[in-house]
Structure formats: C-alpha cells, structure tokens
Amino acid sequence: MVYETENVKFPSTSTVKQGNGEFSPKGISPGSESEYDINMEMDVEGNFKIHSTTSIKNISTDKWEQLMFYFIPNMFTETNSYLEKPSTVKVESINLNGKKVKFNLEKDTLTVPLNEKLEPNQNVVVDIKYELTLPEKGYRFTQNENNYFFSTMVSYDCHI
Known about the structure:
With 160 residues, this protein is an all-beta fold. 0% of the residues lie in helices and 52% in strands.
C-alpha cells in the first residue's frame, strides 16, 4: 500500500535552560514541509512490515539538532499500555540520507539526533523500517477479528 505525498507544516515550542536552573519557553518558527512514502505488508498472522521514507525540509529560521516523530504504535505496547493483548513494535533501522543512525523511542516519541545541524531550507530524507502487530480492544489503532484499524498509526511530526 502506498500513500500519496502530503505537505505538512508544524509550529512548535521548546524549552531553554537559563543560568540559574530555571526553564523558560522559547518559540520556534514554523517548521517543516514533509513528503511521505509509506509501504505496508501484512502476513497471514497479522504481522505488519512497514517502510516509511520521509523527505523533510526545514522551512524555519532555526538550525535543527534532531528530528522528533510522533510514533503512536508504541503507546499500545505492553510497556506503555493497559491492554490485555497489546501491540508489538520493533524498529529495525533508521537511515538519514542513506546512512544508518541511532535513535531513541520513548513512549510516543521517536527521536533521531542529527550528526550535523539541519540549516534552514535544507532537506533530509529519513528511512524508517519497522514491524508491528495491532492490539486487541485498542482505541482507533486496533485489531477486531479480521479487521485492522490504523487511524492513528502513521502520525509523524518533526521538530528541532
């Protein structure tokens, strides 16, 4: 299954540490244009293999040090969910511009540090390969008998 290209702009804020240990919010200029190409395969047991390629352009005035993705499937796993039959998620690899990189997946946030800052008007291509199963009795991201619902599965967002 291939999804059409979509351009998305996301405003955001971040937190900056001040000298005396206090934090104050710092606004971030709107943000990114993204194009997604997502391929999914499902086997007979309901295991999904997903390959997502996202081209991201920094349209803000800020230099980015990392990319952050809103990764909903991880919220339905045994670690993060109360469901009796939770989902499984395994991120196999993430590549930036063709080079394998490290990442951090915590709750619903997938963070990819950048080796070099992404300057305004620069692009980066992110390739993510992962496998998952859907939980039973979940909310919008669920399996009900032979029906599979993905209404919140592919919700990516990029920030600095």
